[in-house]
């Protein structure tokens, strides 16, 4: 037990414990399980009575999770799903009060340390970071990576959390990172429901861990259903451990140790978990614990009842095999406790949980009630002569448990209704609301990025330096020199991906670096984009600096779920409690064919808010961006230009040191007639077009935003429009793709609309993917001819006499 009265579980070592000590541990475990069940039952009632929006609970899994918690040590990591509340209670990762605070969406980090009210209940996380974004001592914490709702998505990250232990154990250069690992002894615990083992990410992660041989312990909670769909429609043979038998390691092979145990058998569960985790921790091999015959007494969630789809005999079986009931019977039969004593314990637990729930609810309402009272008083101070204002004030006053949205909505309505009633008292309400708008922005919309002391925006800007001896080399060689310099400087850097290690990636950016730095730091992977990204997330959460390579931008789509659901939202959904500074390296834009020339920037912009999106025009710019990112702690996607690796560039003398600031656009060519905003591979096309346009008497200003997220923080585009009053945006995405975002940024955010004297235009690729061959590229993506004619047409609209129509 914990000294502050919060219950946690302890290991059972029969060789050292007296029977009395053993009884105390078991009774304490039962109390944790019973309190957790009461939290589930009460939580469901709170949703059905309208106090909470939605509930999903871990009832039926209490006893196996207590057994798992006994094997969980400081420094270990969990990557689970939303049924693990008993494990959270038993390890001390969360308290019952925090459980209810999250259920009510309390936006306080103190009340809900997991997510500050940003996640649904049972989505747990420990806070890995201090207020300034620096790391805590993760070896002194029982760590829980932030849960996500997609039921198999946690598996990708789990691979990286376990892989970190392998690197810490096998790479002595990492010994100095004392706050992140103790000799790589940490186990990464993963949990998943049986139905979700049907998902591709489960099989991908399972295979990856078997190949890597990492200390990863997967627990499958098998209750026979996936919402209403029984196992016969989910899993071949209706048994996940049966079909995974081929992964069982044998002498001379890699693989898993596979265990199977019933979810209502407390002593067998404790024994199985102790044995499984000992093997995992000692031998550094992955294990699977298939926990069968688990029940789900309240069904899937508060959105429906399981009586609708379970047969009567199944419901009766579940009632009989409830793990808490079975543990209770075993305790009485084993003389660990009596029926009377357990009944008394249960009654006490019911009262305790109910009191905790009331405390959490009252604390949630406390600050809102204060705001409610303030708004009522402010409206009444000037609205007594207005029936409408009196009415909305009375409505708010008669709402006993008003939510913050009702309070703020009333204030806004009062401001609107009183727009023609100026007074000092009304000004007080307006100023109050404006102040609250900032407070609520912080409560509900802050920390998309960590914004700590290692923010990329705090990295010193160091220009590239050149001398008379600076060589002209291929772009791929320049990148190679950048990576080489940084890998020599920072032992935390690791890189992995398909074909990255032995051959140095398909475009030779890592050529020779595996031989120089070893295959623990520069590593080949299988074809498994989801777990390449997950590998990066897990490593980054444990203090390393991974470069996760996706071979082509088109293949990023295979990992989009992990990038979007997990990585992009991590800082936001923990309110900067966790970070994963992964650098996702890929290459895209112009090459050949449907799947090697994509530029799906709209997909990326729509799904990856929370990553910096870097679009360097050449390898010098890419190197400068990498140098910035290597020295900061926020995740990013860097898209190198596929057709730039063999173009000649001058090698900076400080190739591993110079930095390119994020969000800073650059004027590539000054001009007076028209502003062209473009990035990546199309920038060279626009530069070429500018030469012929000069011959036609047209001077264009070319702006490279360099990063799309963030976009042009110094508003160079707006400043350019003050000169040219005309705007063309060029890129290789589909019509209305990234160009729509860029227009929104320039016309709306930068207020460039007011500077235009002509309709803004876009020049993009066609709506289809590019066909194969040079002709396909020419006719489906912007060409030099297209740029020249698009610019000329805009000038024709403005001054048809000087620029007569080309085709009329």
TrEMBL record:
Its EC number is 1.2.4.4. SMART domains: Transket_pyr (SM00861). Keywords: Oxidoreductase, Thiamine pyrophosphate. SUPFAM superfamilies: Thiamin diphosphate-binding fold (THDP-binding), TK C-terminal domain-like. It is an enzyme of class 1 (oxidoreductase). Residues 473-647 form the Transketolase-like pyrimidine-binding domain. InterPro entries: DH_E1, THDP-binding, Transketo_C/PFOR_II, Transketolase-like_Pyr-bd, Transketolase_C. Its cofactor is thiamine diphosphate. The keyword Repressor does not apply. It comes from the Bacteria. PANTHER family: 2-OXOISOVALERATE DEHYDROGENASE SUBUNIT BETA, MITOCHONDRIAL, 2-OXOISOVALERATE DEHYDROGENASE SUBUNIT BETA-RELATED. E1 component of the 2-oxoglutarate dehydrogenase (OGDH) complex which catalyzes the decarboxylation of 2-oxoglutarate, the first step in the conversion of 2-oxoglutarate to succinyl-CoA and CO(2). This is 3-methyl-2-oxobutanoate dehydrogenase (2-methylpropanoyl-transferring). It comes from Pedobacter boryungensis.
């Amino acid at each position: 037990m914990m000294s502050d009265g919060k219950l946690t579980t302890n290991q059972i070592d029969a060789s050292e414990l007296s029977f009395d000590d053993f009884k105390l541990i078991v009774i304490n475990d039962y109390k944790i399980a019973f309190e957790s069940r009461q939290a589930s039952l009460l939580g469901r009632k709170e949703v059905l009575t309208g106090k909470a929006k939605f509930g999903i609970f871990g009832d039926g899994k209490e006893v196996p999770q207590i057994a798992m918690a006994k094997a969980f040590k400081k420094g270990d990591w969990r990557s689970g799903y939303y049924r693990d509340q008993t494990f959270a209670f038993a390890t001390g990762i969360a308290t019952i009060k925090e459980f209810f605070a999250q259920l009510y969406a309390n936006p306080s980090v103190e009340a809900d340390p997991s997510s500050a009210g940003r996640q649904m209940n049972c989505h747990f996380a420990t806070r890995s970071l201090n207020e300034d974004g620096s790391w805590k001592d993760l070896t002194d914490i029982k760590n829980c990576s932030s849960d996500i709702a997609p039921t198999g998505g946690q598996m990708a990250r789990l691979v990286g959390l376990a892989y970190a232990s392998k690197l810490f154990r096998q790479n002595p250069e990492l010994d100095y990172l004392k706050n992140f690992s103790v000799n790589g002894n940490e186990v990464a615990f993963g949990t998943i429901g049986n139905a979700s083992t049907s998902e591709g990410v489960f099989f991908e992660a399972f295979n990856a861990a078997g190949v890597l041989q990492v200390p990863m312990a997967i627990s499958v909670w098998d209750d026979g259903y996936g919402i209403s769909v029984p196992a016969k429609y989910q899993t071949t043979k209706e048994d996940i451990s049966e079909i995974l038998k081929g992964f069982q390691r044998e002498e001379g092979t890699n693989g898993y140790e596979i265990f199977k145990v019933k979810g209502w058998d407390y002593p067998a569960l404790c024994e199985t978990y102790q044995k499984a985790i000992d093997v995992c921790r000692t031998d550094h091999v992955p294990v699977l614990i298939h926990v069968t015959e688990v029940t789900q007494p309240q069904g899937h969630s508060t959105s429906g009842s399981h009586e609708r789809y379970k047969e009567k005999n199944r419901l009766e079986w579940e009632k009989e095999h409830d793990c808490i009931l079975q543990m209770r019977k075993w305790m009485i039969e084993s003389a660990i406790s009596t029926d009377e004593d357990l009944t008394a314990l249960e009654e006490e637990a019911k009262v305790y949980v109910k009191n905790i729930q009331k405390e959490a609810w009252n604390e949630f309402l406390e600050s809102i009630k204060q705001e409610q009272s303030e708004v009522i008083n402010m409206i009444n101070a000037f609205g007594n002569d207005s029936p409408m204002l009196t009415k909305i004030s009375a409505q708010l006053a008669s709402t006993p448990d008003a939510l913050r949205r009702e309070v703020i909505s009333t204030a806004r309505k009062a401001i609107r209704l009183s727009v023609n009633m100026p007074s000092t008292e009304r000004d007080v309400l307006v100023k109050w609301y404006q102040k609250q708008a900032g407070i609520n922005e912080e409560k509900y919309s802050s920390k998309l990025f960590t914004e700590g002391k290692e923010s990329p925006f705090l990295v010193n800007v160091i220009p590239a330096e050149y001398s008379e001896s600076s060589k002209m080399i291929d772009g791929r060689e320049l990148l190679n020199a950048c990576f080489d310099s940084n890998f020599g400087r920072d032992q935390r850097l690791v890189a992995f991906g398909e074909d990255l290690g032995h051959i140095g990636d398909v475009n030779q950016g890592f050529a020779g670096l595996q031989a120089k730095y070893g295959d623990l730091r520069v590593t080949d992977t299988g074809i498994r984009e989801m777990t390449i990204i997950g590998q990066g997330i897990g490593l980054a959460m444990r203090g390393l600096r991974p470069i996760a390579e996706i071979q082509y931008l088109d293949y990023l789509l295979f990992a989009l779920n992990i990038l979007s659901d997990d990585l992009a939202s991590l800082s936001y959904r923990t309110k900067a409690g966790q970070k994963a500074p992964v650098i996702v390296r890929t290459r895209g834009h112009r090459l050949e064919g449907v799947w090697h020339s994509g530029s799906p920037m709209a997909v990326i912009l729509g799904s990856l808010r929370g990553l910096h999106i870097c679009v360097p025009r050449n390898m010098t710019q890419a190197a400068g961006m990498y140098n910035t990112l290597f020295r900061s702690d926020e995740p990013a996607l860097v898209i190198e230009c596929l057709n730039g690796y063999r173009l000649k560039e001058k090698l900076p003398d400080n190739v591993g040191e110079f930095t390119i600031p994020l969000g800073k656009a650059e004027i590539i060519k000054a001009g007076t007639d028209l502003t062209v905003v473009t990035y990546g591979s199309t920038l060279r096309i626009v530069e070429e077009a500018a030469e012929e346009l000069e011959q036609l008497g047209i001077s264009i200003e070319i702006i490279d935003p360099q990063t799309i997220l963030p976009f042009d923080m110094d508003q160079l585009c707006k400043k350019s429009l003050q000169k040219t009053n005309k705007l063309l945006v060029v890129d290789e995405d589909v019509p209305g793709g990234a160009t729509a975002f860029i227009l929104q940024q320039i016309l709306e955010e930068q207020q460039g609309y007011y500077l235009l004297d002509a309709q803004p235009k876009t020049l993009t690729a066609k709506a289809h993917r590019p066909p194969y061959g040079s002709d396909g590229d020419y006719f489906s993506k912007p060409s030099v001819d297209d740029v020249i004619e698009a610019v000329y047409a805009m000038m024709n609209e403005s001054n048809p006499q000087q620029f007569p129509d080309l085709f009329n």
